[in-house]
Model the fold of this input.
Amino acid sequence: MKETLSIGTRASQLAIAQAKWVMDRILARYPDLKINLVKIKTRGDRILDKPLSTIGGKGLFVKEIEEALIRKEIDLAVHSLKDVPAELPNNLCIGIIPAREDPRDAFISTGNISIEDLSEGASVGTSSLRRSAQLLRFRPDLKILPLRGNIDTRIKKLKKPDLQAIIVAAAGLNRLGLEDIITHCFSVDIMLPALGQGALGLELREDDIETRDLLAFLDHYTTRMELEAERSLLLELQGGCQIPIGGLARLKDGHIYLDGLVADLDGKTVFRDVIAGLPENAKELGATLAHRLLDAGASKILQKYQ
Done:
């Protein structure tokens, strides 16, 4: 068995917390294993003064980490799966997917006011086109302000008088022990999360069977099947940060239920559909739902912004 293991991660507070979560579980299983955390700054971490949708490209938060993995400077990478493009470098794979955290989006407001009770014209911070499109569909009177930075930075911006609320992933708050500041989590009927939101992906070199076998105990069947459906949907839609795309799969009673969405930036035009099937057909379900959405008219939105 390996004596040492190097884990690559972004240097943000949340990314390190996620990597340490993985590390703690590995050490509980293999107490004699020596583990090194390697912090790597990505392009998405370096550019903080622009919305992600204007930076362009895929893999803003993973490319440099994947390069370190290919160079064998690290043995595995811990990613938030919502940040990982559907297409990976040929020699890499998402070898392990642990159990998923809460996939929903969280609403945090000054005064703990719900989204329904927020005053007309109030400002809500988010740089996610998916979140802003769905929010405007629900509350078209609200003003969207761009919001970048780590979770702590975004929360601190709530102290500014021109910002009344922010939207962030509930999973990140839970992993940092900040769940008490959540005003409420959005129902997925109102706000469908990003594909892969709340899930971690452990990326490995495909030929590193030893590391995959070592970490196999962390792989969670239900989450893996759900993510296979979601990432298949993402792959077929060829979506990036420039287009509002959401989706969530749930494995329940022996079937996967996959809900997918493509929206225009203003939230006025939304294509949404649901498909169900057996878990062993997860990838086919994602592809089929993508083509349903495209045939319904989502292709026009994708062509507009790609």
